[in-house]
Amino acid sequence: MPPSPLCNFAPCLTLGSFTARSFSLLLEYRVQLAPASAKPNLGLSDGAETEDSLEAASNMSSLPGRLALLAAMSLAAPVVHAQESDNRVATMTDWNVFVEEEPSKECWGVSKPKESVNTRDGAPVSVRRGDILLFVTFRPGKPGEISFTGGYPFAAGSTVEVTIDGQPYQFFSDGEWAWPGSAEDDASVLAAMKNGSSAVLSAKSGKGTKTVDTFSLRGFTAAMEDAEKRCQ
Fold first, then answer.
1. What does the angle CA 133 – CA 139 – CA 143 come to, to the nearest 5 degrees?
2. Could you give the CA distance from residue 100 to residue 29 in angstroms, rounded to a whole number?
3. Between these two residues, 232 and 50, which has the higher pLDDT value?
4. pLDDT > 70: percent of the chain
5. Are 139 and 59 in contact (CB under 8 A)?
6. Cβ–Cβ contacts within 10 Å for residue 64, how many?
7. Where are the beta strands (DSSP E) in 115-166?
8. Number of C-alpha atoms within 13 angstroms, CB side, residue 47?
9. In this predicted model, what pLDDT tens digit does every residue of 9-41 receive, in sequence order?
10. Residue 79's pLDDT is what?
11. How many CB atoms lie within 10 A of CB 120?
12. Would you tell me how many other CB atoms lie within 10 Å of the CB of residue 182?
């Protein structure tokens, strides 16, 4: 399967057709919210990490199920179509709500970090990353599902450490994406986020660069209530 020039925004070769959806959400959000000076770079990344850069760049309820979905879809060649950037329906302080009707209805809240710190061997480094976004997605009749993209491929087999007002959680990773391991974990993290003020996500690249991204939770509860209501 030939690499897509859009793969530096989402793990195209890993997630197959699921990536087409993920990329659409990512690009729609980027186009609407990014400043004019931060236009998307659609060049193909070579995946190498240098001294000043990181490695370039579901609705299953359990970790084995989600990983099985990834494996099954890895053979499907994605057809990526950037959608019109007109489906943001609400802004709740630091969180935005989007709705998509096709191919099946989905509603999601998404936010960018307020602060990102990148270090290697304990020292700050200047790095090049893709989009850093935290999502919660709703589908009719189903609870919210959390996903996170850090803008680079996470270290193989690693977890993303999540801290919400001092309470620790873990997300499992695959490529540039990470999520809780079960529907129960989704529910626990969602409840903590609704009651919290910030979420800090710490991850590591394959060559040891550590990233720490801090997301504000101002407006999170209102955004989740709005997104869930729109997808009832």
1. 85
2. 12
3. 232
4. 63
5. yes
6. 10
7. 115-120, 123-124, 133-139, 142-149, 159-164
8. 14
9. 333 333 333 344 444 454 444 434 433 333 233
10. 26
11. 17
12. 17
Residue 161's pLDDT is what? 98
Element (H, E) at 225: helix 220-230
Best CA proximity match to 184, nearest among 167, 174, 204, 169: 169
The span from the CA of 75 to the CA of 209, in Å, is 30
Q: What percent of the chain has pLDDT over 90?
A: 59
Average pLDDT (86-104) is: 91
171 with 162: CB under 8 angstroms?
yes
Six-digit token string for 86: 């007109």
- Bridge partners (DSSP) of residue 145 are 137
215 phi and psi angles, rounded to 5 deg:
-105, 135
- Model confidence at 84, pLDDT cuts 50, 70, 90, reads very low
Q: CB of 54 within 8 A of CB of 205?
A: yes
Angle (nearest 5°) at CA 166 between 162 and 171: 15
Locate 15 and state its tokens: 């997630």
Kindly give, in sequence order, each residue whose CB lies less than 8 Å from that of residue 152, ignoring residues fewer than 6 positions away: 54, 55, 56, 57, 127, 129, 130, 176, 205, 211
Decide: pTM greater than 0.70.
no
